[in-house]
Amino acid sequence: MTDIGFYHLTTSPLERALPLLLEKTLATQKRAVVMCTSEERLYYLNSALWTLGRISFIPHGSAKEGMAEDQPVWLTTFDENPNGAQFLFLTEGAVSPSLTSYERCLDIFDGNDPEALAAARVRWKAYKDAGHEVTYWKQNETGGWEKG
Which three-class secondary structure state does DSSP give residue 102? Predict the structure, then answer.
């Protein structure tokens, strides 16, 4: 089963936290798919990955750029894995019926939004009931993560 980590954003928004998580993923020589819920969010995250990482640039692409097989990080609004990723990042409540095709899934949600928090609890229960290993991570004061 896929290891699913819930990442509870409390001190910084998605566009600040995602680059740091992707840097850690790339450091382990893994590829990632980032599933967004809208084209607008995909466009915004695409821009953020050019400038907001500690290494200042996260190599990535989307359908707009093409060449998925060459992209270590693929941004999409679809349930797809065209770059052969091992990690799936679900943002803003996105869901994928293809979880079992990944080693790890990171479900990132805004803990300051009561609706997002309630929806994350529903997904947590569904994943546990399906037999996935589920862990919880909460952002700390410095923007790092603490296992809960």
Answer: coil
CATH number for position 59: 3.40.50.10110
3-state helix, strand, coil in the chain (%, to 5): 35, 25, 40
- pTM for this model (two decimals): 0.94
SS3 60: coil
Helices and strands of the chain, counted as H and E runs: 3, 8
Structure tokens at 4: 């699913």
Q: Domain range spanning residue 56? A: 3-147
Counted domains in the chain: 1
Say which DSSP state 79 is in: S
For residue 29, pLDDT over 80 is answered with yes
